[in-house]
Design brief:
The protein is an alpha+beta fold. Helix content is 24%, strand content 22%. It has a two-stranded antiparallel ribbon with strand order 1-2. A two-stranded antiparallel ribbon has the order 3-4. Bound molecules: zinc ion (2 copies).
Length: 63
């Protein structure tokens, strides 16, 4: 087990609602538009509902 695999396990959660991302689910992953240091993960539900997300690094909140 590599450290990388462990880390991505932890990060595989929707940034908006905290739901665990499963492989079959539709979701998007992108970098924070402001600081581009934080990975933002959004599940299909939050995408459709346009739920806000918050960057934990810089505090940016946005859709
Ligand atoms: Zn979500
Ligand atoms: Zn940020």
């Amino acid at each position: 087990m590599t450290q990388e695999a462990k880390e991505s396990d932890v990060l595989m959660k929707c940034t908006s609602c905290g739901v665990k991302i499963e492989a079959e689910n539709r979701w998007v992953k992108f970098s924070c538009p402001k600081c581009s240091k934080q990975k933002i993960i959004r599940c299909d539900k939050c995408k459709r509902l346009m739920n806000a997300y918050e960057c934990k690094k810089c505090g940016f909140i946005g859709p």
